[in-house]
Amino acid sequence: KPRLFSGIQPSSDSLHLGNYIGALLQWRELQRDHDAFFCVVDLHAITVPQDPKELAAKTRRTAAQYIAAGIDPTASTLYVQSHVPAHAELAWVLNTITGFGEAGRMTQFKDKSSRYGAEATSVGLFTYPVLMAADILLYDAEVVPVGDDQRQHVELTRDLAERFNSRFGETFVVPKALIQKDTARIYDLQNPTSKMSKSADSVTGLILLLDEPSVTRKKIMRAVTDTDAVIRFDRDAKPGVSNLLAIYAALSGQTIETVSAEYEGKGYGDLKKGLAEVVIGEFEPVRARALELLDDPAELDRLLAANAGRASEVADATLAKAYERVGFLRRV
Ligand code: TYM
């Protein structure tokens, strides 16, 4: 089976609809015919300030949501990044072959650093994409299913793999990003031209996996649309309605055309009501299962530890190979 790697940051209590559609929904399908590694990337999370009292709980909650959403921790390897030291170790080596200008061109870094200002921006945030490259390359992953916002980071990973291979000899598999066409980017319901994100200014446009159904319904009913009252998919002219249609299609397994046809001639209220049912129908069992898993944190921690053991075996072997290629003296 081809190898697959992906991850989500444990930077909030609940994952959101963008993570669900951009990542989890694909992961669930792909795990069947891939040897899949799904990581909770806590090393990435601390590139912006995290409350140490909350980080461990968020990490566990994120893992519980992976499982609740259908990731099978006996078939796939589901683990926590900081449990496998090889990630940080390979990242160091890759840092030394990454150009300063190259890292500076990452748009996510440019966005975040301009938001926080240079003084509040950590060097960790700057080298964050290099750590992501280490994640992927340690597992010889061929495919990396992500949302569109991670495309550039996977491109950098490919460049680094090729550079390392040509400088030090064939070592890494060059991976490919796997990005769904219409749902690569889910937008904020209040601000449908910016992507749905945990760092949104307000939570009203952010649909959370662990929200109560009544909260989810309210947020969907209040989604921003437009004034021409026609249900039609057109990203430029009708970003709000198009976002709702794309979400509906992704979760119901239909095409956008089918959903648009079903709602042709109906009102925005009908579309929102229908969408609320689809989202709640999808999220409710996931939410219930996640909360159930979180009732037994010790069991969850044991499962993560066992999976980290499996991940380490693969990661340590790749790291040893990379160290040897670079010329480090082997510790006998
Ligand atoms: P993160 O934690 O920001 O997001 C996790 C996944 O969710 C996708 N996503 C979205 N997809 C569609 N619409 C949205 N509005 C939306 N928001 C988020 C992201 O594209 C991602 O797939 N650097 C990564 C985590 C990471 C990683 C990796 C991913 C670390 N190492 C190795 C793949 C492979 C990140 O911050 O994702």
UniProtKB/TrEMBL annotation:
Keyword tags: Aminoacyl-tRNA synthetase, ATP-binding, Cytoplasm, Ligase, Nucleotide-binding, Protein biosynthesis
Keyword check for Protein biosynthesis: yes
A UniProt-annotated Pfam family: tRNA-synt_1b
Entry annotated with the keyword Glycoprotein: no
Record localization: Cytoplasm
Motif ('KMSKS' region): 195-199
The organism's place on the tree of life at top rank: Bacteria
Entry EC number(s): 6.1.1.2
GO BP, one annotated term: tryptophanyl-tRNA aminoacylation
PROSITE patterns: AA_TRNA_LIGASE_I (PS00178)
Residues binding ATP, per UniProt: Q9, P10, S11, G18, N19, G147, D148, D149, I186, K195, M196, S197, K198, S199
Binding residues annotated for L-tryptophan, in chain numbering: D135
Catalytic activity: tRNA(Trp) + L-tryptophan + ATP = L-tryptophyl-tRNA(Trp) + AMP + diphosphate + H(+)
Gene Ontology MF term list: ATP binding; tryptophan-tRNA ligase activity
GO cellular component, one term: cytosol
Role this protein plays: Catalyzes the attachment of tryptophan to tRNA(Trp).
Quaternary structure note: Homodimer.
PANTHER family: TRYPTOPHAN--TRNA LIGASE, MITOCHONDRIAL
NCBIfam families membership: trpS
Record-stated family: Belongs to the class-I aminoacyl-tRNA synthetase family.
Protein name: Tryptophan--tRNA ligase
